[in-house]
Sequence to fold (225 residues):
Amino acid sequence: MSSSPRSARTASLPRRTGRRLRRALGSRRTVQRHEPIARPVDRARSRAWLVAGLALLVGLAGVVTAAVLGYRAAGRTAEAERGRLHRTEALVLGKLRTEETGAGRWSGGYEKRTDTSVSWTTPDGAARTGTVEAPRSTASGSTIVLWVDDDGRPATAPATRIGLAVGAVCTGLAGSATLTALIGGALALRLRVLDRRADRDWERSWARWEPRWSGRGRASQPQDD
Fold:
């Protein structure tokens, strides 16, 4: 009775991944079976790429984790600031002249803001007048949003969720770019060293086998009469 040949089963993903890792790490048995002509320098290149890839994955995971944790910490700080700050509207009394503030011609810089006299009401109902920075386009008699503390003093506005998210993304991108550049530079240096080693091995092999291949080695041997 004849039996039909069994179809070859495809190896599972974990098994294929293990084979590739053993091959990249230079397992002699695996390399000899799958890559019989692989040189030690070739296995060293595979290990360099593998280590760089793993380091990049671990580093990116760390950068993302740090960005998320930083975003959450900044969010908690912003919530705490919102609890002690108060949002109010301030009446613009007029812009201060340059000689009054002692600032130079380019006061406000590229932010296009200038010192402005405003009046507002403190949380306890008292009226107060002071100087804050406002856009240069703000007209006298208009109102601007002003954040004050419990004592009624002007304070920096708490960060918004959008601002925190943008800051976290920028931080993550900057960290990822820096990490990629560092790992890429280290990998490039390692591959350059391996390329030089491969060149030296090639020169030694050529010096050894070229005379035999070309016949110069036999021609240089003395002939018997």
Residues 56 and 158 are 35 Å apart (CA to CA). The two ends are 71 Å apart (CA to CA). Residues 15-74+165-219 form one domain.
